[in-house]
Amino acid sequence: MSANFEDCRSTQTEPVRVEDETGKATRFCIHVNAGPSDNPMQSEFTGHIGGKGNRFCRKCEVGGTQKEKVSDEGYHALFEAGTPRTRERIVVELEKQVKSACAGVMSHVKTSQTETGVKDVYTQYWIDDLIKRFHELKQGDPARSNVDIQKELVQWALDNRDKIYSSFLTMNGFDPTKDTPVEILHTILLGIVKYIWHISHTPLDTEQKARYSARLQATETDGLSIHPIRANYIMQYAGSLIGRQLKTIAQTNVFHLYDIVSEDKFKAWKATGELAALLWFPEVRNLAEYRADLKVAVANVLDIFAVIDPSKIVTKIKYHLLAHIDEDAVQFGPLVGVATEIYECFNAVFRYCSILSNHLAPSRDIALQLGDQESLKHRLTGGLWSAGDGKSWTRARSGVRCFLESHPMLQKLLAWSDAKSLKHGTPK
What we know:
single chain
């Protein structure tokens, strides 16, 4: 990952030259504006201890000990975004931890991580290494003072600052606390929707499951943009549903569970469905109105879940992250635009690589060595790349470009369509 950031930095000082089909050239540089991912990975980006820590939010300072979180003040604080965590403060805390490691004291490091929630996986390697080196230096020369050893290690840490701290925390223009948006696949579908689905289907008896399954299968799907509903499969594997199935039931369950679940659970489905409809929103025309609706929808979800199972508000970070959706919507626009689920289609794309290898010819080594989803897509769709001399440009041969034309599934995965002109005077 550090290598990727170095590549980004290099383009900011030496913009990359590109050329289009007409021969016109321009240059571009890369800036990292977002780090979409699931919540554990985003915690790593931000030097955060994770959702199991006392300070369990990567975006703000909310939380504390279990006793503090279950108090009236601490519990209510979980329903709102707290004091923002800043990149500068995270780096300061990491510097304190590194300084403690230079003194060979691990207990101070652990105390800092517990109290502040700042624990960077990348820097932790160097913290452990510095503590180890402290004890090795002490054993090698027992007469040497601890202060002298600490001074040597602190100086080494200052000289190797770029090596010790994660690129996520030092990259210009990227603030991981602000630029890691709430990811709707993992936080909403695999979080809130999955939670209410579990507590809804678990108590159902055989007759209720059969009734629900029949209703779900009979759903009119026009306008929903979902996969064909397989109700029997959903009920058979109710505890192992994936995102697309949870997306289906989030949109439809309010019409099927009204007389099957309790009143509170039905309210939870209505609140969750309304929030999901606002999040899978492609274009915001009135930001003020959208933010107001979003805040109300989030508050409704948190309030009803607090009625159903108040302990989950304390233990599940995904509930609290809903309070940050509003600020992320302002920062990034509709959150469906930063959903990582759209890139999972590339898992299927790479299954075609073994087939493509017979057609890639001279471009085969370049495309497969890069191993990058967008690079592969760029080549398959006829994109140009530098031949290496900085002057000439090349592209995949016609056999590669024509490969898409005979594989509709690959076309769909790559969101590619063949431009076919219509004959005037004929109906479509």
